[in-house]
Structures are given as structure tokens and as C-alpha cells.
Amino acid sequence: MELYQIKTFVVVAGTGNLTRAAKHLHASQSTISLHIKSLEEELGVCLFLRTPKGMVPTPEGEALVKKAQDVLDSVEKMYAEALTLCGAVSGEARVGLQTSPVYLRTPQLIKCIKDNYPGLNLQFVQHQTWTMRREVAGRSVEGGFFYSVSPPAEVEGILLENTVLRVVGPASWRAKMENANWADLAKLPWIWTPSECSFSQKLNEKFHLLGLEASKSMIADSEDAHNTLVRSENGVTVMRDDEAREGEDSGSFYIWPGGHLEVGLYFGFHKQRKADPIVKALIDCVKKVWKPSVS
User: Other C-beta atoms within 10 Å of 239: how many?
Assistant: First the structure.
């Protein structure tokens, strides 16, 4: 039984989909299928039911996947111990970014790693914030930045700051917005974010508390799309204070003066990897760069 077969088994069980598993493991779907088939033959049990909706673990698969994860955890702990015994942190650290690298202080993080852990190479990957939480939980990255309305349950997270969100509309909508309250804003067309997005969850929470229903005219899942749609006078939205101020300074946005929302910005990592020297190095530098008051 090979370690890569065990990892493939765990990833397919976690994703429930060969396509996603193949992307996660940087392998072809045929290779993933072959690994699963070989493992099933070696174990003498059927691990998955192949259905139109994806790969569903059989009862036997459900019973074995936890054991398989324990094997991977043990290997990770052995690797972490070996790095500790070597006395120097080396290897590759995959770090997930969910928004502007400048906003996330990535240049400062790179400098801190180079100064303190010269043997550690950084690889940055970009994902939406809701995908990033899954990537951290699934151990596809050593650590990642994401927004969350509350401390995430599936991973361990360091609260870096409470990010301020501003309600923003086109500059030409100033007359509609400057004296508006939340009830007035609810009637305007809103450019919303997907339901998994923390911005969406925060807005829903606010409108629900006020007994209001926002007029959602469209949904967009990227900051660039929201910027473009507001500039082209398609509606109002929320965005980070720094983005809002930049658009206001350029004459494109009007920032509603009636209040703001806040959402937590976290750096997260898998709970089982807290003692991993690479993860510890990332945590050390993230804390040095951000100096969070809560961790």
C-alpha cells in the first residue's frame, strides 16, 4: 500500500468528486481512478459508489477514511519532527491569498520569511475567501488569509483585524444616498456577493436585524467585478474601506456616510499542523507583520 494511494483516498472522500480531487492532487482523473481502484483491490473492499453526483463513500469507505487520515497525520508529524531535529526550517510553504497582496502585506511577509527563515520557499495561491477556508481545512495550503464573521470552526485562525466595510455607490448617486438610512438603501439595486461570502453574510445579518429585505439586482464574486459594476452605475455594494476611499478619490464612487460594517480578517491553518515547523514559521512572521492584538 503506497502513501499516495492513501492520500488520494482521503482527498476523494473529502471532495466527493474526481475532478476536484485531481485538481487538488495535481494529477489526471484517470490517475486518481487508478489509485482508488488499486487501493480497493489491495484492501479487498469497495471504498466508493460511483454516482452521477460524484464519489460517495461506502460504509466500508466511511469506516476506513478516518484511519487513512490518521496515517497521513502521523507522516506529517514525523516530517515535522525531522525538520525540528535538523535545526533549520526548510522546504516549501503554500500560502493562500483571498484579496489584494498589498492589502495582505505580502511584501512584508516575504521579507520577514527571507530574513528569519531563508531556507523556506513561499508559493502563493489565490482563491475566493470561502474556497480558502476549505483549502486550509483540506491541507492544500500550509496557511491562508480569509474573511469570517466569527472564529472559524474547521481550522485554527488568528484574527488579524476587523476589516471595515463601506457601502459604496456610483458618484452620480450621491443625491440618492447622502441622507439615506438603511431602509432607503435596501430599495436601491444591490450588487450582492455569493451566499458563502462573509460580506454577504454580514449584510444579510444587518438587514435581517432591521427587518428589511435588500433589492438584490445581481451577484458578482470578485472585487474587480464589484468595482466595475459600481463604476458603470449598476448598483450599490460593500467593499473594503481602502478600496472605497481609492474610488472616491478618483471621482468614481460615493461612500454612504451613514455607517459601516466589520468582518474579521484571519490567517488560518489546520489544527493538526500547529506544531509543524513550516506552519510555525508562517505564524511567527504573520504575527510580526500584523502584530494582532488577539490571536
Answer: 22
Q: Three-state secondary structure along 110-165?
A: HHHHHHHCCCEEEEEEECCHHHHHHHHHCCCCCEEEEEECCCCCCCEEEEEEEEEE
- pTM, whole model, 2 decimals? 0.74
Q: What is the pLDDT of residues 202-249, one digit of tens each?
A: 999 999 999 999 999 999 989 999 999 999 999 999 999 999 999 999
Nearby residues of 133 by Cβ (< 8 Å), 6 or more positions away: 144, 146, 148, 152, 154, 155, 268
Residue 78: the pLDDT is 74
**Torsion over CA of 234, 237, 242 and 248, rounded to 10 degrees?**
40
Does the pLDDT at position 86 exceed 70?
no
pLDDT digits (tens, 9 = 90+) for 158-208: 999 999 999 999 999 999 999 999 999 999 999 999 999 999 999 999 999
| SS (HEC) of 197-261 | CHHHHHHHHHHHHCCCCCEEEEECCCHHHHHHHHHCCCCEEEEEHHHHHHHHHCCCEEECCCCCE
Distance (Å, whole) CA 80 – CA 276: 5
Q: How confident is the model at residue 295 (pLDDT cuts 50, 70, 90)?
A: very low
**Closest among 258, 263, 71, 249 to 159, alpha carbons compared:** 263
**Residue 193 forms beta bridges with which residues?**
none
- For residue 89, what are the contacts with CB-CB under 8 A and spacing of at least 6? 83, 117, 119, 120, 277, 278, 280, 281
Phi, psi for 51 (deg, rounded to 5):
-120, 165
